[in-house]
Design a protein that fits this description.
Blueprint (H helix, E strand, L loop, with lengths): L2 H16 L2 E7 L15 H10 L1 E5 L3 H4 L7 E5 L7 H12 L3 E5 L5 H7 L5 E2 L5 E2 L11 E4 L2 H4 L13 E2 L4 E5 L3 E3 L2 E3 L2 E8 L2 E6 L10 H13 L5 E5 L10 E7 L5 H19 L2 H33 L4 H13 L1 H4 L5
Parallel strand pairs: 2-14, 3-4, 3-14, 4-13
Antiparallel strand pairs: 1-15, 5-8, 6-10, 7-9, 9-12, 10-11, 12-13
C-alpha cells in the first residue's frame, strides 16, 4: 500500500479527534441571564455549570415545568417577577424531595419566595456599606468564610452594593467587621444555608457575585460553591427575569481538548495496519482464507457426489439428479426465462 495512503489515514483520523465543534448559541440582554454575555449577564457562570454537570434554562413557570417532581439544583439569580402560589408550592415539593435551591437576590422579589416557604430570613431593603472594598465603596469584599469547603483558595468575595440577610440561621459568609447597615456596625451575613425537608436552600444576598463583571475575582468561590452541591443537574431560572428576550442566534466554537491516549492508540493502529500489509501477513491471511473457502466448497461438492452415487445404487437416474441440482443452483425453474 502506498505510504501516502497511510499518511492520509493518519492525518484525517487525528484531525477528526481534535476538530472543533460548532454549536448554536442564543443571546439575551436581560440582567442576570445565563444567555447574557455582557457585564451584567451570567454566561461565564453558565459555562462553569456546563463544565460541572447538566444545565437547563427554565423558561416557563415552575408549575408548568413540574419542578416538584425533579431532582437537582434550582438556581434563581436576581428575580424581578412575582412567584405565583403554584410556583411556591412546586419549590416546596422540590426542596422536601431532596432538591437544592440557590436564591441570590438583594432588593428584588426574593423575599416573596422566602415568605411563601415559611422562612424567617429576609433580604435587607438597604445595601450594606463597608470600609473594605476593591475599586470603590460600591464594591465591598467579604472577610470571613466559615465553611472550609467554600474558603479553599479564596481570599475574599467581591460584591456590588449587596444587601444582607436578616434573621440568618446558619450563616457561612460575612462582610468585614468594618461594615454598616443603617445605624448598626459589624460583620453582616451575606450567605445562609437552611435545611428544608430533605433538601436545603442557599440564600445569598448579592446576585452580582455571579455576574460576568465580577466572575474573574469570584471564580474560586463559585467553583467551591458548585463543587459542594450534592446534585450536578442544574436548572437556572430565566422565567423570573422581566426583560428576558432571546434576540439572536449564532454559533459558538468549542475546541476539543486533545485526548493524547486516544491519539496514541489511533497512531498505533495505523502503524500495525501498515506492518501487517507491508510484511505480507495480510496477503498470507487472505490466501489462507481463500484456501479454506475453496476446500470447504470442494468438500461440499464431494459430499453431494457421494449422495448422488448412493441414490444411483438405489435405482435412481444420476444424470437427472445432477440436472435437478444444477437447476436449483441457477434458479432457472424458479425464474422462468429470466433466469432469476
Amino acid at each position: 500500500m502506498n505510504r501516502v495512503a497511510y499518511a492520509i489515514l493518519l492525518i484525517v483520523g487525528v484531525s477528526l479527534l481534535v476538530m472543533p465543534m460548532s454549536v448554536p448559541r442564543f443571546k439575551s440582554d436581560a440582567a442576570y441571564s445565563v444567555l447574557n454575555t455582557e457585564w451584567n449577564g451570567l454566561s461565564s457562570f453558565g459555562k462553569l455549570l456546563y463544565e460541572s454537570g447538566e444545565i437547563t434554562p427554565v423558561l416557563v413557570p415552575y408549575d408548568s415545568l413540574g419542578l416538584g417532581d425533579m431532582n437537582g439544583t434550582l438556581i434563581v439569580v436576581g428575580p424581578d417577577m412575582d412567584f405565583s402560589r403554584g410556583e411556591i408550592e412546586q419549590v416546596k415539593e422540590f426542596l422536601e424531595g431532596g432538591g437544592t435551591v440557590i436564591l441570590a437576590d438583594d432588593f428584588g422579589t426574593g423575599n416573596e419566595l422566602l415568605e411563601g416557604l415559611g422562612l424567617p430570613q429576609r433580604f435587607s431593603k438597604k445595601p450594606v456599606i463597608s470600609l473594605t472594598y476593591t475599586k470603590n465603596y460600591e464594591f465591598p469584599v467579604t472577610r470571613e468564610i466559615t465553611d472550609t469547603a467554600l474558603s479553599q483558595g479564596v481570599d475574599y468575595v467581591v460584591m456590588s452594593r449587596p444587601a444582607v440577610i436578616l434573621n440568618a440561621q446558619s450563616p457561612t459568609v460575612y462582610t468585614s467587621n468594618a461594615s454598616m447597615l443603617g445605624g448598626e456596625y459589624g460583620a453582616f451575613p451575606i450567605m445562609d444555608v437552611v435545611s428544608y425537608g430533605k433538601g436545603e436552600i442557599i440564600i445569598i444576598s448579592d446576585p452580582d457575585i455571579f455576574t460576568n463583571s465580577l466572575f474573574p475575582q469570584n471564580e474560586p468561590f463559585l467553583r467551591n460553591l458548585i463543587g459542594s452541591l450534592p446534585e450536578r443537574t442544574f436548572y437556572i431560572d430565566e422565567a423570573h427575569h422581566r426583560d428576558f428576550n432571546p434576540y439572536s442566534t449564532g454559533t459558538i466554537v468549542i475546541r476539543r481538548a486533545i485526548n493524547k491516549r486516544l491519539v496514541f492508540y489511533y497512531v498505533l493502529f495505523i502503524a500495525a495496519l501498515a506492518f501487517i500489509i507491508e510484511s505480507g501477513i495480510f496477503g498470507l491471511l487472505l490466501n489462507r482464507l481463500f484456501s479454506f473457502l475453496d476446500r470447504f466448497f470442494r468438500e461440499e461438492r464431494k459430499g453431494l457426489d457421494e449422495i448422488i452415487s448412493r441414490l444411483e445404487e438405489s435405482g435412481l437416474d444420476g444424470d437427472k439428479l445432477k440436472k435437478i441440482l444444477r437447476e436449483i443452483e441457477t434458479g432457472s425453474k424458479l425464474g422462468g426465462g429470466h433466469g432469476r
